[in-house]
Design goal:
Length: 348
């Protein structure tokens, strides 16, 4: 049977409740610790991969989000983004035993590189579309594993549905066995617990410090061992909070984890500071609202934008309140999302 040549996949961004921060093996994208996230139903990347025997090189065409009311022009990408995409396609080609080059067209409906896990959505969509276009038969575990190997580790959590955990094997670090065992699984589907994530965008520009570089620096912080020691208890609390739908436990745990990750960033050598004054305004407001009985909690990935987690019925009120804060440019409301899925396949 001739394998399909073209496939389109949609993948969600995800927000980490417990953060992946620090890499033990850069070549294989192996973390120090497990991490847990929630998929976002409204921050999506749609990617079409077309393998074309007539192409001499891989091509990447990006349609990046340009603002809530603006058109998203297509541009041909080169340099690092194309190299990363081509490297991932190369892994999939080797798996399928083919040499065809591919045209990749990828569109986001949310700001890229601003701490909203755009590369997670992008690498999950790329991997799934590439696998489908090559006719490879991979189960969810293998898909997540190959997505992780693409280099944006958090992307492996955008493959399973709803709430996902990227587990690390127990015992001492061993690159070969960890490589074969490091992938994400779903802890619960979206309908298990109707949470919302309202992203308060305080800076929609490209973040200045890439996570890849800072993953390498994490272990230079004197606080990194303290963070790692706290993580087993925080991971257990987060699993428990999701299983029992306990928002107060989840909220206290994710706030502590976000602060801990940013303390590591601020104390790495050299240090980096992702937060701006808008970030602090949102943190203080969320804490005040929480004290007054509006149960919302903050978390922040590698950027300045603040993700505010709440129960779905409080989402509209939080969207209004957050949009009215000084420094907030716009808000992006999300429910819990499905995992990555193929939406189209064709034999050209
Ligand atoms: C802070 O290397 O997965 O979001 O830099 O977007 O490729 P990119 O992400 P990745 O690092 C993610 C770090 C994090 C925490 C997390 O998502 O677990």
């Amino acid at each position: 049977m001739t394998p399909p040549r073209s496939a389109t996949a949609i993948a969600p961004a995800n927000i980490a409740f417990i953060k992946y921060w620090g890499m033990q093996d850069v070549a294989r994208t192996l973390p120090y610790n497990g991490s847990i996230s929630m998929n976002l139903d409204a921050c999506l990347t749609t990617t079409t991969v077309t393998f074309d025997p007539d192409l001499a090189e891989d091509e990447l065409i990006l349609r990046l989000y340009a603002g809530p009311a603006a058109a998203t022009p297509a541009r041909r990408a080169a340099g690092r983004p194309l190299e990363r995409v081509s490297a991932q396609l190369g892994r999939l080609r080797a798996l399928a035993g083919v040499g065809w080059r591919a045209r990749v067209e990828s569109a986001n409906n949310f700001p890229s590189d601003a701490g909203i896990a755009s590369s997670a959505a992008a690498f999950a969509a790329l991997t799934l579309a590439g696998v489908a276009a090559l006719g490879l038969d991979l189960d969810e575990r293998e898909l997540s594993l190959w997505t992780r190997r693409g280099g944006s580790g958090s992307a492996c959590r955008s493959i399973p549905s709803g709430y996902a955990e990227w587990c690390v094997p127990g015992g001492p670090f061993d690159a070969t066995s960890w490589d074969a065992e490091s992938y994400a699984v779903s802890l619960a589907p979206p309908e298990h617990w109707a949470l919302a994530d309202v992203v308060a965008v305080v800076d929609a520009g490209v973040k200045k410090i890439g996570s890849a570089e800072n993953h390498r620096l994490a272990a230079t912080s004197a606080y990194f061992p303290a963070r790692l020691a706290e993580l087993p208890a925080r991971l257990a609390a987060t699993r428990d909070a999701i299983a029992r739908r306990d928002l107060e436990l989840l909220g206290a745990t994710i706030e502590a984890d976000a602060v801990s990750m940013h303390v590591v960033c601020m104390t790495s050598r050299p240090p980096s500071f992702y937060w701006n004054s808008g970030t602090m305004t949102v943190i203080h407001a969320v804490r005040e609202w929480h004290a007054a009985g509006l149960y919302s909690y903050f978390t922040i990935d590698a950027g300045s934008n603040v993700h505010v987690i709440c129960a779905a019925p409080d989402r509209a009120q939080l969207e209004r309140r957050l949009a009215a804060l000084p420094g907030v440019q716009f808000v992006l409301g999300n429910a819990v999302g499905m995992g990555a899925r193929v939406v189209e396949m064709s034999n050209l």
